[in-house]
Amino acid sequence: MPSSRSTRALAVALLAVLLGALLPAATAQAASRTVQGGRLDWGIKSSFQSYVTGPIAGGSWSLTGGAATVGGSQFRFHSATGSYDPDTGALSSGFSGGVHFTGHRKADGSNELDLTISRPTVRISGGSGTLHADVVSKERGTGKVSHRSQVPLATLGLGGIDMKGGSTPIALTGVPATLTTQGASAFAGYYTAGTPLDPISLSVDTRGAAAEPKQSAPDEKQSTPDRDKAEQKEKEKEKAGRFEDAAVDWGVRRTFREYVTGSIGQGKWTLADGAQDGGALFRFPRGKGTYDAKKQTLVADFSGSIRFTGAHDLDLRFAGVTVTVAKGEGTLSADVTSEGVTSEGVPLVTFPAKDLAPKEGLAVLTEVPATLTADGAEAFGSMYTAGTAMDPVSLAVAVDEKARMPALPDLGSEPTTAAEPPKKAAEEHSAAPATVSSDSGPGTGTYLAIGGGVLLLAAAGAAFFALRRRAAQSAPEAADTLAGPDSPRTS
């Protein structure tokens, strides 16, 4: 009897130790993660794009809020934010940017077709998913304009995709999307519910919840010679109109970027000297210069350079970017190198700058239209004529040292592999589109966490039975077999 009691006690102790080791891992697995950074690629509906720009509608589309283009007919929405729960697979991720479609221009200059889709949000839970978006549309026939926030625009076919236990970045590719009833209404009646839309692909970065940094209370009363000297210097700088932090964002021209990287240009662009890529735009940072708030004049020099190279002797570089503003008009200039020859200070584009008054420490212009100059046209080798609309210009100047530059679009990490619907489901969608939705078993991530627990518990069980064999010399043999499901999963 004592032997039996000691055997049980030892087995219970062993199980307690093993379970204690498992609990922290299980808790970490279940902890919700923050989505911070990433992109959503979606063409909305490629045939609709063709219709809008075709001979019947005779219209066009434009990008807003930093959205970009990628591939042949996809729009790239950026700066993902939200949450992801690896334990349940629930994902909620919102993206920035929008697309504005116009067409069927009327005699009064307005457009019968006027549709804006922006701020798409993907919500996935329990094996099903929905794409929401803000939609502003002009109803077909009546012309009634509606503004709708986060409309459930499309259902997502997630059949066979297990969202549990994903590592960062979370990536999905080619997920079928089908127009909902509410989406059909928001789409201004151009399509009926059940119509297949373009598939979506996304990649988002996730991270654990970060602890709030401790902030020490500022000691405003304390005065030191160094602090007084710094404050005096700052006042003198402000009086002189000097600033030490500014940024200008410009994408050059969307169709030019597509030409460079497309089948004809077969090229690329290279950023250097601190220039940054925001997907649909390039940022030239660390601007310095002078600004007069009363006269609303500006002279600024920026860091960064960009070089476009490709087939047909394409080699064009912009560096030494400057911006000047006077009398309500701005000019963006750069040192232009083409065919090995550099021309300094070439005025490339002009843009309206009528309201450059500072707000909350920043003097800002946001996506103002830009027009190519005659010198700019020559810089592009007469590829475009003077007066051609180029990509809009955004400008931010910090007139207060506490002000921060607007955030650059955050595209997140490049995905290594991405989960996608089974081939059969994808083929069925392309041939006869339909919403695909099913619950799937745990994927590799969950399997490793839970499976590891099963293995440890099996070891504990083996130890328990071994101890009983010593005590009673008779025990059944136990064996645990693990068979993990072979299903697609998030990366």
Defining traits:
eight-stranded antiparallel β-barrel; 491 residues; 8 helices; single chain; 25 strands; globular
Could you describe the 3D structure shown?
It is built from eight helices and 25 strands. It has 491 residues and is of the alpha+beta class. The strands form two sheets. Strands 12, 13, 14, 15, 16, 17, 18, 19, 20, 21, 22, 23, 24 and 25 form a 14-stranded antiparallel beta sheet that branches. The chain is globular. The two termini are 54 Å apart. The model is unreliable at 14-30, 210-221, 236-240 and 424-491 (pLDDT under 50).
Query: Helices and strands: which structural class?
Result: alpha+beta
Largest sheet: 14 strands, antiparallel
Calculate the mean pLDDT score and round it.
78
Shape label: globular
Strand content: 35-45%
Record field, number of beta strands? 25
- The level of helicity is 10-25%
